[in-house]
Write a structure and sequence with these properties.
Blueprint: H1 2-7, H2 9-74, H3 77-84, H4 88-94, H5 97-103, E1 107-112, E2 117-122, H6 132-143, H7 146-153, E3 156-162, E4 167-174, E5 186-193, H8 196-203, E6 207-210, H9 215-223, E7 228-232, E8 236-244, E9 250-259, H10 261-311, H11 319-323, H12 327-387, H13 391-403, H14 409-453, E10 465-467, H15 469-484, E11 489-491, E12 499-501, H16 503-524, E13 532-538, E14 543-550, H17 557-562, H18 579-589, E15 593-597, E16 605-612
Parallel strand pairs: 11-13
Antiparallel strand pairs: 1-2, 1-5, 3-4, 4-5, 6-9, 7-8, 8-9, 10-12, 13-14, 14-16, 15-16
Amino acid sequence: MTNFIKQRLAGKFAVVAMAAGLLVTALSFVTLQQILGPTFASIEQQANRDQVARARNALTEINNGLQASALDYAVWDDMFIFARTPTKAFEQEIFTLLGYENLHVDYMAVVRFDGTTAWSQADNPEGTAFLPAETAALTPLMVSGPIAEAARASEKSGTYVRGTRGIYSIQTTWIKKTDGSGQPFAYLVIGKLLDETTLSDALQTRSLLIAAVAPKLKQEILESSDKTFTAYEANEIRNSLGLIGYSGDVLATVSFSTPRTISQTGAGAVKSAMMAMGVSLLALTVLLALGVNRIAVLRLQSLRRHVASFRSGRRVVDPKLLTSKDEIGTLAKQFDQLADELAEAEDELRRNSYVQGKADSAVGLLHNVRNALVPLQVKHDKWHQEDRQPLRGQLIQALDELAGDACPAERRAALEAFVKSASRKLAEMGSARSDEIIEIKHSVDQILAIVSDYHFDSSAKPNIEAVDVEALLGREAANLEAATGKPVSIILPDAIPPVKANLIHLNQIVTNVMMNAAEAMRAGGAADWTLTVGCTADPAAGTVEIAITDNGEGADAYVLGHAFERGFSTRKDKSSGMGLHWSSNTMRAMDGELALESEGRGKGATVRLRLPLVDQTVISLAA
């Protein structure tokens, strides 16, 4: 599989498609989470608020029902009379356990504004008996305190109170005559004991009545606008509705939970969408790989076979490839046409290569012969200058004058001294010319060697031999000093092993490099020329490196990039541009390397020649 991905175009397309798909999937997941998550959460929160509102409405309906029952009994002539003058008959007829059951109440009381009671009784949940202890606990709350004050002040009022059995919903109403007349002097109290069954039926959800409320929860409820605290947990939303008494305290809470099915459905929808996208992505990737393989890869392989057949000299092409109208077919036809043109160009190149090779070789020959002629020109100029001096004529005149008898003694002594000095000078010049004739002989031999080594076949390999680098560098440095009149510093190790090279070619290359260095220093206008020739051997690498460094004009990045190209030169008066080009090619032909380094314009340059060492001690020296 890894090899398929690395080598097959279809696999690469599949990887790209998979990466793009994963990116799209990740972005889609983030987008859905950012959009659907808050949307479902908002819907869920609204649904919970609606549920809380329904719960509040259910409690309100319970209270309203109690208030309606209270009105039915309170606005009644018989109740008005009973409140003023209680009778057993009325009690036995109205305030019975069956009457409590029919009204669905658990406590009733008739309380006068002066704080006395005409009736006050609480019954048990089964409706089988009144409860004196519970009555004793509730009655004081009805005749005095906040509940009594609210009942006297308002025609209708309601609240919650805590009894010994639990929390009661209490509703109060002024007692009047049936027609609504009569000065109110008492109020009717009806109470219903709240239990979890009643609350669950009313709220239509399982509810808990919690009497012991934690202080923190009380604070949260009292600070909320609807006296409700909502807590969002992982799987459910817990709501606590506060039952507030007349004192403003939370007497109890009605608690119920709403499952977080909406947000869980939203999360499930996002997961399902991601799974669907993943499956779609996988299917798309497979189909894309198969399609690219069939549409492009197989046909490109056919085109590759076509290319390979052209390279081998026997062209084989799939006809379907050339008749196709798409880009690959067009490419195949263009390649086929290019193959024809290349075949024609190859024939033309074969015809021209021999002539071009001879031309390049001839240019290189002339360039190297010119460099070899420089020492001859230097010697010629030196001799010409020496011969133009009046020394010889003056010597002849002095000898002629000494041959006569009329020369005074003092004059004779002066002439004899001059003759001795001039003769010594001429002898020194003759001795120097003898050495210079030997150097001229060497230059002539070098020119003859260059010409003799010349090959019109530019592909011919040079003859390789063992070359003494130290002797070669010393000789060429001396020639450069004679030609320029400037010193050359040579820094060599104690012993340099011989290198594998062609003596004539290496001699020409070193000459080219040193002459270029001299021209660079002259062009750079350096006051003090500094040309240093160094040499280091690296037995581990099996090479010797020659470094020729100058303080001339240097080279920028452009020159460094083009210095070894054929015809390139920074000298306007140099038209051939074959020096470094020929030198670099010749170094490669001798299994060596040539490199040019510079830190920039005006910072000088270094040419490095790297050649392989030989395993023998035979040293070839110039004559």
